[in-house]
Amino acid sequence: AKAKGRNTFHFYSQELNAAANERLFIENELRIGLKEKQFVVYYQPQVDSRTHQVVGYEALLRWFHPTEGAIPPDKFIPIAEATGLIVELGEWVLQESCDFAVRLAEQGLENNISINLSARQFKDSSLVTTLSKMIIKSGVSAKRLHLELTESMLMGNVEAAITQLHELKALGISISIDDFGTGYSSLSYLKRFPVDILKIDRSFVKDIPEDTNDMEITAAIIAMAQKLKLDVVAEGVETIEQMQFLQNNNCFIVQGYYFSKPIAEHELPNLYERLNEL
Ligand code: C2E
Ligand code: CA
Ligand code: CA
Ligand code: CA
């Protein structure tokens, strides 16, 4: 029994070591990757399901590592966040997204670009100045920019969060609450935060039409958003049944594999063609 205990411990510490090593590896490679431009921003369309028109895109970061291949954001974003590298990486995503919005505008396309903000970026006191400089330099129309925040980012220091949101909104930017329904914010807080859009989390959408609880929750979120005069976007929409359920409940802007995965900018012509045929 003793020997087994030791073996178990040995095995466990090896696992911990492997996790720590992977973390360290990713941290180092992140710095290199930033310098060597291994990152690309992909864009996933948000589509009006009635007309199949693209209303906007969510910017989603992709890392193509020379030897590891594609490393998913869930693997590197938390490490970038913990090490503070997310600030530099996040600024780069903001810059790319502004430039993308300008290129679309030059083609006469007034699409919104939604950008994920990390907790660290949101708390950073220089965020507003950085953004305001970026808006001027790129020439993007600020009303095209939507920042996606999660509930937990707003709940720590509520007063500071409200101030920061007002300053961002003063630039002309819109605010989305990402993964809505999965966090801890209460409805009374939601009313105090100057937000514009709720994004219904994929976890509520994915089991429609089998899970009646999820359907009730989704319908309730949409109804509440309407009462609060917020726009609502459903994420993770993969099937026509899900889309129809959302339509029947007055949610028309959807994002998900049903219309398109996140794509590189050069794939936009294929996207338009696909949306025309659907
Ligand atoms: P998120 O903000 O909730 O983004 C939505 C995620 O759902 C994306 O995963 C997207 O590819 C995926 N998705 C969209 N539609 C569907 C669908 O129909 N089915 C399924 N199964 N998945 C769908 P992705 O790109 O792997 O990103 C994961 C997370 O990483 C994001 O979750 C976000 O929290 C974070 N992230 C990505 N890019 C950035 C970034 O530039 N900055 C920050 N701070 N976080 C980012
Ligand atoms: Ca998001
Ligand atoms: Ca989300
Ligand atoms: Ca998420």
From TrEMBL:
Subcellular location: Cell membrane
Main location: membrane
The entry's keywords: Cell membrane, Membrane, Transmembrane, Transmembrane helix
Ion transport as UniProt keyword: no
Signal among keywords: no
Location of the EAL domain: 23-276
Full protein name: EAL domain-containing protein
Source species of the chain: Pseudoalteromonas distincta
